[in-house]
Design goal:
single chain; alpha/beta; 2 domains; Rossmann fold; 18 helices; 7-stranded parallel beta sheet; 38% helix; 443 residues
């Protein structure tokens, strides 16, 4: 691995900024991609989430943008609002070092505000396909000067049905642009897209499966549909996670489970496509700030949601394939940290478990009766003790957990300060009873 980012050709100002936020060494995908992109060549990179893909394309882009040219020179297309906001946040800190402007555009916010922001002629635009197309058609966004185009989480854009819109956006960019495609998997339609819109791209395939999974303790809990909610609550109480995501297949199941957990006294909320943009942002903000310890989500959160401090992932509904499983549990055990992933399996779902185990080429430990004091629970609890300090300077979940050693089972912080004799009062499922009736598209 290179000594630092300077060795890869990244300027001192950006290297110093990265060092200031605790990033001193490039990840494998950054080490492989950055030198290629600095030469101006197109790139197809296959790497899972949690491997540092964002910096792999952001740093070369920032190196090549001309601050004196007041038009959009780089466009980053993403499948979801959450990923758009995440990339914008990461790009803003870096861009400020070079006096560059970054704007994010996505559905759920008023067009007028984003149109006004685009009048400032930002150097970099990050956005979802539908909103980008809308702004182009309104003549608020011009892409003729775009020389750097990124298609991030391309396979997710395929799964969400955005590929046609992506191709329409690409037609508005310069033919001489440099194109970068990043994807966790490489379905035939994504490979076909790359062949159509790229020029002799360099192909990087990172064997990242173990990077995602090695730091994650995986457990299968065999139970019944009737007992699943009780098993989940039992494990939450045993593990007392710092932050945990609980995955469900559908929005309705997520809402129902959120309400059920709230009625049992847990501080919990939900995240799915039926929530308004402001509500989604509010929920994510509370979760990031650890004011909310349990988040029930659909797979909208499985991609592009990079939140520090997620110690546990619960697959309340078992994923239907290995890719979804990998992306879900990849929300924990990130950047060298450790994590725990629990998957519930009810009768009739063994087929999906076999698919997952075949896909990850490993057998997952199975536990039919998750009892208090189990070895799995002890292993998870020990992870919050001193001695396994996070390397990232910006966040150390183990130190935070040491300060908050009292098991909380997801109860809010205020209740955890009460004497042990106090009983937790039922929390509010702030999203369960106020679900919007109108579906909000990700773009």
């Amino acid at each position: 691995m290179s000594t630092d980012f300077l060795a890869l050709g990244i300027r001192p100002e950006l290297t110093a900024y990265l060092k200031g936020i605790g990033i001193t060494h490039p990840t494998p995908i950054q080490e492989k991609a950055i030198p290629v992109l600095l030469t101006g060549k197109d790139l197809v990179a296959q790497a899972q989430t949690g491997t540092g893909k964002t910096l792999a394309f952001l740093l070369p882009i920032l190196e090549k943008i001309d601050v004196n040219k007041s038009y959009t020179q780089a466009l980053i297309i993403t499948p979801t609002r959450e990923l758009t906001m995440q990339i914008e946040k990461e790009a803003q800190g870096l861009a400020e070092q070079l006096d560059l402007q970054v704007v994010a555009v996505y559905g759920g916010h008023t067009l007028a505000k984003q149109i006004n922001q685009l009048k400032g002629k930002p150097h970099i635009v990050v956005g979802t396909p539908g909103r980008i197309l809308d702004l182009i058609r309104r003549k608020a966004l011009t892409l003729a000067g775009v020389s750097k185009l990124v298609l991030d989480e391309a396979d997710q854009m395929l799964h969400m049905g955005f590929l046609e819109e992506v191709e329409q956006v690409i037609q508005y960019t310069a033919a001489s642009r440099q194109t970068m495609l990043f994807s966790a998997t490489m379905p035939a339609k994504i490979r076909s897209l790359a062949d159509r819109v790229m020029r002799k791209p360099i192909d990087i395939r990172l064997k990242t499966q173990h990077i995602t999974l090695d730091e994650i303790d995986q457990l299968v809990v065999e139970t019944t549909s009737d007992e699943k909610i009780n098993k989940l609550c039992q494990l939450i109480q045993e593990y007392h996670p710092y932050l945990a995501i609980i995955f469900c297949h559908t929005k309705q199941r997520a809402s129902t489970l959120t309400l059920a957990l709230a009625q049992r006294g847990f501080q919990v909320d939900e995240l799915h496509g039926d929530l308004s943009q402001s509500k989604r942002e509010q929920v994510l903000r509370r979760f990031r700030e650890a004011k909310l310890h349990l988040l029930v989500a659909t797979d909208i959160a499985a991609r592009g949601l990079d939140i520090e401090g997620i110690t546990h992932v619960f697959n309340y509904d078992i994923p239907r394939d290995a890719d979804t499983y990998i992306h879900r549990i990849g929300r924990t055990g990130r950047a060298g940290e450790t994590g725990t992933a629990v998957t519930f399996v009810v009768p009739g779902e063994q087929y999906y478990l076999r698919l997952i185990e075949q896909g990850i080429q490993a057998t997952i430990q199975k536990q039919k009766n998750a009892k208090a004091g189990s070895s799995a629970a002890k292993a998870a609890v020990s992870r919050t003790k001193p001695g396994e300090a996070a390397k990232k300077a910006s966040f150390n979940p183990h130190k935070r957990a040491e300060k908050k050693a009292t098991p909380h089972g997801g109860i809010n912080l205020r209740s955890r300060r009460k004497p042990k004799t106090d009983q937790p009062s039922a929390g509010k499922a702030t999203g369960a009873s106020r679900k919007t009736s109108r579906r909000s598209r990700s773009s």
